[in-house]
Each structure stands twice: as C-alpha cells, then as structure tokens.
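Write out structure tokens for Hedgehog/Intein (Hint) domain-containing protein.
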Amino acid sequence: MPAIESVLSPEDLEYIVDLPEVGEAWAKLDKTGNDRVYFTIELTESIRAALEARFGLDFSGVSRIPMRWIKGDTAPHVDSGASKFENTYLVYLNDSPGEFLIGSESYPITQNTGYMFNEGTSHSTANTGFVTRLLLGPMNELAEPVGSSVIFYYPSQADALANTNVITSYSSYTIILTAGYTHWRIATTSIGTSPTNVVYNVGDVLNSDGSYYLYPNTPCFLEGSTILCQIDGIETYMPVESLKKGTLVKTALNGFKEVVAVAKGEITNPGNDERIENRLYKCSKEKYPALTEDLYITGCHSILEHHITDKQREGIIKHLGKIYVTDKKYRLIACVDERAEPWNSEGTYIIYHFALENEDIRMNYGVYAGGGLLVETCPILNLKERSNMRVL
C-alpha cells in the first residue's frame, strides 16, 4: 500500500498552513494540552482538483474538508464515521518523527504525503514524540471525518457509566440522531471538557478533547401516575396516560390550565439501587405525607419544595448546572432527594409527560400528583423538541 507523494502543489500547501483557522486550532492544542483538535477548512478549486486527481475522488458537491492537529502516538484502531464508507484518505501536511503504521507496513511521516486504505484496516502511529502533526482528513470518500470513535451512545445512564450495551459510536464530535433519540446527556465517566450538566441536541458539537459516553434525556412520570384535573367541573385525579389535549389540569398558582401536548416514551430501569438520573424513583406515602398513593418518577423529574438543604443544592447544581425555580418553589430532582428511593424493578417501562398552555413555551407549572405532591410539568419547548418522546 504505497504512499502518495506530493499530493498538493507547494502553493496549496502554503495556503493551508497560513490559514487563520489552522493557527487558531493549533493554539487550542497547545493551550489546553489536548492531544488533538478537529476543524474544517474551505475546499478551494485547486485543492479539490488535486485530491480528485491523486485519490480518484469526486468532490464536486463538497465545500469544506475536515482537518486535524494531533500530538503524540495514536493507538492501533479501525476508523468509523457517521456514514458507511469504503476507504480512509489523509494527507500529512508537515514532517514529523516516527512512523505511520498501516496493517503490517510502516511509513515515515513526511510533509505532503497522502495515504488511502480500506475501511476496516487497523492503523496507528509510533515514536512521534511531542511534535504536532497537521493532517488533511482523515476522511472518507464523502469528505466526512473518520477516525477512532470519540462519542459512544448508550440506551441508559447505567449503561453509559458501566460502558455496556453501546448502541453505536462515531469519530465525530457532532451529536447525531441515534436510535430515534434527539437529546442526550454526558455520563460523568466521560473524558472531555464539555459540561455533564447540560442537555445536548442533535447537531451540537462537543469539545474535541476526549471521549464522551452519552445517554438519552428522559424526565417523566411512570404510566399510571395520577394528576389532579377538572372533569365536568369536578376536581379528580386522572392517570397521566388519560390526559389529552384540552384536559384541564390544576396548577399551584395559576388555576386550571389546558393540556397542549402529551408525550409517551420508554425507559429501561435497572435492578439495583444506584442513584442515577436515567431510572425510576419511588416516592412513597411514608416519605411524602402529601401523597395518598406511591408515585414513580424519573431521576431528573422535580418535586417542588419551599426549602432545600445545602447538600441538595450541591447535588442539583452537579446534575443541572444551576438552581431552578417553578411557581416560587425550588425544583428538587428525584435523584438528589434523599426521600425518593431508587425503584429496583428491572425492566422496560412506559413513561409519560405533558405540557400546559403558556405564552412562554419555556415555562412550566407546579401540579399535583399522586394525591397531592407538588411536582413540575414540562415546558412546551422541552416536550416537543427536547424530550426524546413521541408526542401523541
């Protein structure tokens, strides 16, 4: 598998090296101590022609190409990407000590030398020291970045923490639609500087400085949970799955408000007592005097409280990034509330959530569940665009 020498003209090579975005990316590598920084540059006509001629590619519909600064040796790996592909393509744009290893072959790392090899081929670098290397690519024939996986998608938080049952993984730091889920959180075992207390959407780009383990975001009620409503002028508790558009729900401070959307989903609940977000918690009548029946909610669903302890405040900030208030009460998420018990009934369960009418689609309400416990509803924006659930 021979190297392809002199892929670019001296003028194109100088043009790339002198681009401001190349220097800015290098500064990030040096300043943060990361071992690699990913970025893209505009594909000029002369660079397009060179890549097409030297690699036999068709980049007629491509406007930008992936680039990478990297420092240190790369362990043996097989490239992956967002799409199925046939070959990996890359060009070294500066000299470096060490060797580029493709299968059983070894090549010196020299400026303006390109390589093309089949998908599934193991490759690595060795003896490169601390000299930074600038690469055009690695990419596939669609000019999409490929490489060793940096984002791993899991069906639950428990799986993400334990690194089990991975759905898929990709080499791009851009979050993609995976298994039907559009909103994700980062497990605390991830190695990278993107915050773990944020909900990320498809298209968001994580900091390119490590590996991330993602799991779906799901704050909800277990099927069968009851919500205080008004039916034919009479206040009554209805199962959450019976709510529909137009149902009047009693709020803590704003009277009755109409349901504008109900969403349904599933959650895989572990059979242990680990206090994680993405599982069901039991709020028992014994621990919550306002309840007349046990209530089951997910770990990031909030109970509304006048007061929270310093420990609870610290836990909320750890999970959510800051303290939130709804209807003049603190949002105390179940996984932080010591009274809520991890429900260790292993299995897959149906969950629901709902949103009430509000001119501000980012706002929610306090409502009564399970006989009288004040809990939060979902904002219209979150339910329709950030819930990973099917709006009914």
